[in-house]
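agent> Task received from the user: take the single chain below, predict its 3D structure, and emit structure tokens. No templates, no multimer pairing.
agent> Plan: (1) validate residues, (2) run structure prediction, (3) serialize to tokens, (4) report one or two observations.
agent> Step 1 OK, no nonstandard residues flagged.
tool_call: predict_structure(input=
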Amino acid sequence: MPAALGSGAIANDMEARATDLLIIGAGPFGLALSAQASALGIDHLVVGEPMGFWKDHMPPEMLLRSSCQWSLDPTGVCSIDAYLEELGQTCRSVEPLSRNFYLDYARWLQDEKRIEVQDLRIAAIEQHDDALLALATDGARIRARNIVVAVGFERFAFTPPELAAMFPVERVAHTCHLVDFAPLRGKRVVIIGGRQSAFEWAAMIREAGAASVELVYRHDTPLFEPSEWAWVGDIVDNMPADPGWFRRLSDQQKAQLNRRFWEQGRLRLEPWLWPRVDHDNVRLHSNSNVVSAGTQGEAMSLQLDSGKTLDADQLVFATGYRVDLAQLPFLPAATLGALGLEDGYAPLDIGFQSRVPGLFFTSLAATRDFGSFLAFTVSARAQATIIAEAVRRRA
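)
tool_result: status=success, residues=395
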């Protein structure tokens, strides 16, 4: 691991700090990659805030769909099972995993693997001779042979523009930005969306004392029954041996696989959610759309295509995420042009490398070329293994 680079340490130095690998982001995917890079002896630097997206954009009360098998250490040493053994606990005692438990596990992993994360924010990535130059907001410069973008989902939060335009901006929030529910006590809340996050936010908002919660969604109500994830684990475990398997599938086969994932991850919700939303002040409006809206004083009024009218003090968009790399502030126009974006994604090779030599993308930004499950932490170890090997080959 390279020596620590303190904030502003080289801000006025004409010489850029050099490293073989710069990892932008210290969430699950960044930490997993750092662990694997260390195992392979790759000189690297991690920048960002450890688990920053999880800390800032997930409510403390949140429970996860992850299982104890969704560990982050590609070497298998610092697994969740190993962490639990140290705590004297078992998976049965901690599942469903909480957001706070996962944060504690990530801190333990970081300590065990001695992963140093530098508090730097990258402002721009530029091609520079045979390497890449990362410019930090404090003026620091890092010259990297390889850069992996492993940021959280915040920049990709999606709100349908035709719906957002109906409401005052100060009265709406995406689930990504609504993690403190105390101000909603006694309020009437409408959530647009009907998948896991919509129902879980509904449960947490009700438990925080909201007067009512209405969920509006365009489809049938999902089933509240266990999802079967074992097949996904088998796929990602086999990915390092054959990282190009997904792209060799026909369009029909890819659609079938993504549909199977959709059925498990979107058409089913966790069974522990239903008792938390099965209350008189939580009302479901399935197969419904908002067709118009208005404001009257402090209140909003929503008209549904069913003819119903809903009154709300706060509107929440549980409308998911959509990749658009142009939303990342550290990718200037020249870099975006070289990436050759397609529907917001950068085309990637089987090592997760983009058309800009040495620039890699992971997690949600890799789902188009590698499958929907790449956005979930179940795939973090496999992605780290593949990317680290690709970086090692470029050395």
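agent> Step 4: summary for the user.
The chain has two domains: 17-156+322-394, 161-225+270-317.
agent> Done.
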